[in-house]
Amino acid sequence: MEATRAGARERSEPGCRALYFCGSIRGGRDDRELYQRIVSRLRRYGVVLTEHVAFGELGARGEETAGGDRSIHEQDLAWLQQADVVVAEVTQPSLGVGYELGRAVALSKRILCLFRPQSGRVLSAMIRGAADGSRFQVWDYEEGEVEAMLDRYFEAHLPEPVASSPDPTA
Question: Strand runs (DSSP E) across the chain, as ranges?
């Protein structure tokens, strides 16, 4: 797992959107298969910096890295700073996801939170209440429509990434 994290999910080319996916790890892995579907769909819209969140071999105890939790924290914050958009599946309560979202807000990132009301859970007021309909959005959905929701978000709410050019007039 450490090699995967260290295997630098960098922007592969100028103009490629960097996406940060948040999903529960130590808070519970019940939605792992859903996370795999989300990450698969997100790849259509950019490089998923945190695709390891969806890995089947990642259990509820999380990852083991040489630098421990501090190393994970530092790497994830670096990816969060690099990200153009943050997508979080927030149905499974997770302290880590809440922390990542707070940091993303502080960094003025575009954020989409996805929540399934039919889970029987109630979304934290700190998440739902942060929604401003623009930079921070919370969308309720049913599991069968997750890909369509992601398509709708990326096609309607975000401009296409612009390739870098050394010539500012180009």
Answer: 18-22, 47-48, 85-89, 110-115, 136-140
Quote the tokens at residue 103. Answer: 């940091």
Strand order in the sheet with 110-115: 47-48, 18-22, 85-89, 110-115, 136-140
What are the counts of helices (DSSP H) followed by strands (DSSP E) for the chain?
6, 5
Nearest C-alpha neighbor of 91 from the set 14, 34, 154, 52: 34
CB 25 within 8 A of CB 7: no
**Mind listing the pLDDT tens digit for each residue in 74-108?**
999 999 999 999 999 999 999 999 999 999 999 99
Structure-block tokens of residue 80 = 């969060």
Q: What is the pLDDT of residues 116-137, one digit of tens each?
A: 999 999 999 999 999 999 999 9
Look up the pTM and report it: 0.85
Tokens encoding 85: 């958009």
